[in-house]
Amino acid sequence: MFCFRLRLWLQSARVCTVHQQNAHKLASLQKATTLPPKKVQSLLYPFSELETYLDRSVDRTQFQLFHPSVEDMVKAEKLFSSSPSHKIDYYISAERMDHVPALEQPEVCFIGRSNVGKSSLIKALFSLTPEVEVRVSKTPGHTKKMNFFKVGRAFTIVDMPGYGYRAPKDFVDMVEPYLNKRKNLVRTFLLVDGSVGIQKADLIALEMCEEFRRPYVMVVTKMDKCRPGTLLTNLLHLQNVVKTQTTSCFPQPFLVSSVQFWGIYLLRCFVAHVTGNIMLTESSEN
Ligand SMILES: Nc1nc2c(ncn2[C@@H]2O[C@H](COP(=O)(O)OP(=O)(O)OP(=O)(O)O)[C@@H](O)[C@H]2O)c(=O)[nH]1
Ligand SMILES: [Mg+2]
Known about the structure:
Elements lengths: L1 H11 L16 H4 L4 H8 L2 H5 L18 H10 L8 E7 L12 E6 L5 H8 L20 E6 L3 E5 L11 H11 L3 E9 L6 H13 L3 E6 L6 H18 L8 E2 L8 H11 L12
Parallel strand pairs: 2-4, 2-5, 5-6, 6-7
Antiparallel strand pairs: 1-3, 3-4
Helix pairs in contact: 5-10
The structure holds guanosine-5'-triphosphate (GTP) and magnesium ion.
């Protein structure tokens, strides 16, 4: 039923069609919704994939605080589609705070350990415009600079170098002042590898975010890489850390897979929402 309504809605709405040959097969909602209903549900709302494994006594509210409608996701999707009046492109790289461009539009950035999947996630978010070059690599420490991507005049996305193994030498001098001082930074996304769970280095990053007292959100990556039981254990542990050790963190961690595209549409919607680019049609954020 959900899928039938969804397809009807997508047919009636003017949904962006991906023309590019090399776009990921699940880049758009329209493509994703051709899959079987259960698969669509977990692509759009990835927590539903884990919910069946969760004990009845566990409160699910915290995992679904941000639960936008498909209409909202479609609105967000339009923002991630390039057009002559809304160009999405790589803008500039910066090695130090004094190289960071002065921009008015709201900004979001992605931080996390080397190899956690920051660049891959940004690439997946931009999959409707595959001509935007976001470099990913198997080798940790690949992203060496802060890379700025402009999404029209709507917002900017910043891909950060990773911390931990093979982090750039000047990582702290580069990233800390940015996270602390950047005026137009509206959200930091702190990525944690869902297949290994929260690590010591992630806790240090979390403490740093707490110290700056600026809003941030946890994102659990690579959810395709492990069994649901392992993922759920890691998610519940992370959720407990968020609940007991944070004040500036959004209580709901976002689950994603940049390979299978789980959670990409939901995250696009959250980015569009926190940058003030879409009004949610119903109360989706409690
Ligand atoms: N299975 C799986 N692999 C992923 C996923 N996301 C990223 N990867 C892989 O993880 C590796 C690192 O990805 P990147 O996106 O380059 O990671 P990064 O966090 O940007 O790394 P640095 O720039 O080195 O800090 C690559 O081999 C990706 O293909 C995912 O969702 N699932
Ligand atoms: Mg990278």
